[in-house]
Amino acid sequence: MTANPTGNPKGFEPVFCTIIPPHLQDRVAQSDNRAVAAKARKSLERDALERTRRRMTTVLGAPSVAPPPGAGPDQTPHRTIYDAGHGTDLPGRKIRGEGDQPAQDATVNRAYAGLGATFELYLQKYGRYSIDGEGLPLNATVHYDQDYDNAFWNGEQMVFGDGDGEIFLDFTLPIDVIGHELTHGVTQYTANLTYFGQPGALNESLSDVFGSLIKQYSLGQTAAEADWLIGAGLLAPNVTGVALRSMKAPGTAYDDDVLGKDPQPADMAHFVRTGRDNGGVHINSGIPNHAFYILAETLGGNAWERAGQIWYDTLTGGRLKHDALFHDFAKATVKSAQARYGGGEEYQAVLKAWEQVGVPTH
């Protein structure tokens, strides 16, 4: 998708994408622990302000973000990490630029490495030069606000909170969280899926898929070796759970007194109809997530290769409308598999994966 003079893709819907969904924050905000609840409410209020800012930026026009001098044929990343100093002014104070020595702050270095790992997968495996395909600089701000329980892509940059230490830890800890949020930027510049209902769940699922692939690629894991968890290491030790979501077994990531039980379904028979969470975008994403896991497991080897290639071709190949439903996406993946691999193993595996989660492909 072509970027317009404001730096946003044409027709881009003003979406503010966070890794922790509002429905989960709402749950924490109702905790009997007043301190925990207060921090959750504060994070919700900050998210609401940032969501409004995102809408206004899109309406008024964001500053154009051009590749830095020298960007182009070298196809190297151009990362800059800023420190908000627990304030909310963005981007904050520059701490580490591209090629600089590691900082003394581990959070800064994790953000820098996560941006690099995301850039590396997209370039080396899919031939995509940064988020927009044209060398977009990768900027991130750490130490955002006090006890802020989220990380987000605001359409221009990444922002990481430090967590409250009781429910959520530092949001730079899981590399797949970084990859997830940056992939919202890739979707922004390609299929531009509407952030509501099934299109929104596809938007979230694509971020989970590529977030997981970035983690697997950085660790050198095969599909069989991967844990297929999103946000492992983010939950504090006293939380009963292993991650935010499980692609292998949706609905099993956590079951906690404060967080409640993971609501994700694994198939269409358990599709959740709700007006919350933008029509369940972080909930029903479990269905296409599970389809991808089944495909990757069936094909074996490295999931970023054949399975990931089919999903990437579908995201970027112009086959998706902005309001695509699950069956539209499923049909598009079948066409992508056939176009790249013919009617063999990959094509058959895609058909079977969608069949197992109850999404038609015809």
The fraction of residues in strands falls at 5-15%
Largest β-sheet summary = 6 strands, mixed
Strand order within the widest beta sheet: 1-5-6-4-2-3
Gyration radius, rounded? 19 Å
Write down the CATH topology of the largest domain: Elastase, domain 1
Shape: globular
Q: Determine the fraction of residues in helical runs and give it as a percent range.
A: 40-55%
Rounded to the nearest angstrom, the distance between the terminal CA atoms is 27 Å
* Overall domain count: 2
Count, helices:
10
Going by helix content, strand content and strand pairing, the class is alpha+beta
Low-pLDDT residue intervals, each spanning 5 or more residues: 1-12, 56-73
CATH class descriptor of the largest domain: Alpha Beta
Question: What is the residue-mean pLDDT, rounded to a whole number?
Answer: 90
Order of helices and strands: EHHEEHEEEHHEEEEHHHHH
What is the second-level CATH architecture of the largest domain? Roll
Q: Give the tally of β-strands.
A: 10
Explain how this protein is built.
- This protein folds into two domains: 17-189, Elastase, domain 1; 197-356, Neutral Protease Domain 2 (Neutral Protease, domain 2), CATH 1.10.390.
- Helix 1 runs antiparallel to helix 2.
- By secondary structure, it is an alpha+beta fold.
- It is built from ten helices and ten strands.
- The chain starts with 16 loop residues before the first strand and ends in a 6-residue tail after the last helix.
- The relative contact order is 0.12.
- It has a six-stranded mixed sheet with strand order 1-5-6-4-2-3, covered by helices on one side.
